[in-house]
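call fold target=Replication restart protein PriA
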Amino acid sequence: MSKPKQQSLFEEEELPENPMPWERESAQDLYLAQIVLNRPVDRVFHYLVPESMRALLRAGHRVQVPFGRGNQLSPGYCVGVGPAEENQPSIRFKTVEAILDSRPLFDAKMLKLTRWIADRYLCSWGQVLECVVPAGVKNQAGTRMVTLFELAAPSHLAGDDSAALIEKLPAKQRAVFDALKSAEKPLTLEELTQSAGCGSGPVQSLKKKSLIRSHQKRMQHFENDDDVVHAHIKKEDDLELNPDQCRALDQILEAIRGQRSETFVLHGVTGSGKTEVYIQAIREVVSYGQQAIVLVPEISLTPQAIQRFRSRFDSVAVLHSHLSDSDRHYHWQNIAAGKVQVIVGARSAVFAPAPHLGLIIIDEEHETSFKQETAPRYHAREVARKRSELESVPLILGSATPTLNSWLRVIEKKDTLISMSKRVNDLPMPNVNIIDVRNDVQIRRNDSIGRVLFTGMQHALGAGGQVILFLNLRGYSPALWCKGCGNSVKCPHCEISLTWHRDKNLAVCHSCDFSAKPPTHCPGCGAPGLRFVGTGTQRLEEEVKAKFPGYKCQRMDSDTMRGVGSHARVLNAFAAGEVDILLGTQMIAKGLDFPNVTLVGVVDADTMLHQPDLFASERTFQLIAQVAGRTGRGMQGGRVFVQTASPTEPAILKAAEHDFLSFAKYEMGHRKEMLAPPYSHYARVILRGPQEEHVQEFARQLSQILSDAAEEKKLSVQILGPAPAPIIRLKKYFRYHFQLAAVNVEEILQLWREVDGKLPREKGIEYIIDVDPVNMR
């Protein structure tokens, strides 16, 4: 394969002066720009392009345009530009005021991708483009406008008068002139005065005499590039692959060398060496001068994987939430210039402006964090699939527990399955013990660690092993309960029980962040003596320290891991053996590979199982299987104890057997009977407002309008609801929802487009639509 031509999308360039706006009334010789704006209206607006901009403005540029009745200047995105069509109506067009960037931010393929997202997820094109570009890029963070000085044009200095004037210059002015004459490039004022050994006065005097000239240019002043170039990291050689890994890599390389779009579902058990397959596939891509995008669920939680990428490749950009705007802008420019080989990031990294893209990888593709919860509500997996198609590059979806959506595509032969059923070095899968805690004496007296798990931890720690404990509830007690009326104390703004955080002595709402001192009396019935019920990670940590005082314990949840680099520090300490017991929420269930972990305990396997959610069983299976995979990665082997009050649940039983195939067959059988995803598509319409009865009535109106339209257009879309949302009150608003269900998602999209714009508006009530939702609360 020939090496692609390197071409930068971003180069330092002098920006043009803002032209004066102008208008024409005739349609003849019009040159128009198609502009979309960050508004919830999916419409392309036409603006007149001044002659001074015609050679500069391109599709993909960000521009400034007057918008609305007040002609307020607003940023927009140019998605097309050219002469007006012959039948263009003769109207008075508003004019593009300014081009905001020296180079287009989007190429033609990215414009196609973003247009597809707008159509697929029922939002505006402008909202998608606004989401794609980081704020640091839009604000040009890390750059500043500077004034550069250089000698006047040679023709201006050639005359006898100029020569005489130069000869008569005072010493300091002459020093400035000579400094510019000997300089290889224009100088800033600071550079010039330092070189000439003077102040700014002589510089301004020379400018008045027209012997030197100045112009403005945007320059970079990034402070560091530690996240891109890591020369201090010791480089490592590729590992020798086992037969399963070789077969997987060969299939992927065939698609890479054939430059074809193909989606591979890499189903490998935990510890089977999927990351090494990713790395060696990327190695092939990089050898062609191309780039790879690797999406991970939560970038700050996978320091081990990032370290492995940095130890193998010369330039790795890591995009995460802790980056400053300046760093984001810097990475964007380096990626767009083709200077970065591997881009590792969370879901938004799927939009990385890689001009030589050769491969896309989504690790742990089952994770719900790949779905955006705010507009545009896209799923990174589906966006990656579309980008793979547009770029003609392979896509790898890796997981030990693939989503049932991905699995159905394998069954239907739409995607290619690659199986890795054995662990590296033929290590056995850990033995998983399901512990029925309904009659456990220690659990009955409100301990979190039952007898069997306690004994197992004693043996593991006594033998020099390490322990991981998983509990997906943060805080100390998840509920404050009243014996008098039997109700829990709820957030005043949400229909959610408050969680007691003992370290701050605050009752906290984990949805809106409301916090207050815990009440001494029940707000409902006034009875005194509220009880703190249930166990969160804070209480579990306290119990572990009391029962195992001789061992170092560390908690990982969103309360303790707020600082920059906090995840890496804790995990490095655990890897070094400085921590014996690591406990936390789902952030410890992903991407961790510690050979000395010989026991994993799932403290409460039922926390997700009984949620009012269609996907509760699937997520319970995924979580237990993933947590169980954190142990048995060394020669000492490992054991897993799963504490549950539902020991016969299929999701728990199949996870204990490491049997994804049986679970998928069982769960998909139920889904097929109900015609539920993945055998159909849902779009969820959520309404909210300050008065419940108004929201309820408006939900009925909208659902009826949609139902009537579906019947009129003969679309096979079923309306489910409306009904109160599982959390009926959230952040002071009452919430109702209903769902549009259809086997073919295109029918849902068509129905919404038919009625969108015609739907009534109700003062104070907002509504949104979420296509293929993953969060049903």
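return ok
The chain is about 30% helix and 20% strand. The longest helix spans residues 692-712.
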